[in-house]
Write a structure and sequence with these properties.
1 helix; P-loop_NTPase; 2 domains; six-stranded antiparallel β-barrel; elongation factor; 9 strands; 4% helix; EFTu-like_2; mainly beta; two-stranded antiparallel sheet; single chain
């Protein structure tokens, strides 16, 4: 079955567990004498273990596409007193930095990023996978909204499309 849904069984760790009894969660269990452990192929070679925790630790993080143009779909836009307009979203590709000029599609609004924050901490940059809020200059919350996509105005800015084809 796992092959049918597109996975290579050699790259997946199979671990029999019992959350109720704690079998093979953090330590190897004596309740599964038939279970010898898991082995999977990774980019670094073979990885082996016996527990779910070891299997989780052996997961390789995905490559983050920082080399592609910035694409940041907006999850929401907030107006914060004393700060201004703060769009919030997850960086999908590229990098967002303070000082860069971004364009929002399809509203076609262009502005400068004043600061980038994650969990109330200022960041030098936001990279793919980061959920960030960024303060923008001279933009009202009425001009941009959830669903807009932010991109670097100097490097392949995003454009709205009337239609597109997708294979699902």
């Amino acid at each position: 079955f796992i092959k049918k849904v597109g996975y290579n069984p050699k790259t997946v760790a199979f671990v029999p567990i019992s959350g109720f009894h704690g079998d093979n969660m953090l330590t190897a269990s004596t309740n599964c004498p038939w279970y010898k452990g898991w082995e999977k192929e990774t980019k670094a070679g073979k990885s082996t273990g016996k527990t779910l925790l070891e299997a989780i630790d052996a997961i390789e993080p995905p490559k983050r596409p920082t080399d592609k143009p910035l694409r940041l779909p907006l999850q929401d836009v907030y107006k914060i007193g004393g700060i201004g307009t703060v769009p919030v979203g997850r960086v999908e590709t590229g990098v967002i930095k303070p000082g860069m000029v971004v364009t929002f599609a399809p509203s076609n609004v262009t502005t400068e990023v004043k600061s980038v924050e994650m969990h109330h901490e200022q960041l030098p940059e936001g990279v793919p996978g980061d959920n960030v809020g960024f303060n923008v200059k001279n933009v009202s919350v009425k001009e941009i909204r959830r669903g807009n996509v932010a991109g670097d105005s100097k490097n392949d800015p995003p454009n709205g499309a009337a239609s597109f084809n997708a294979q699902v």
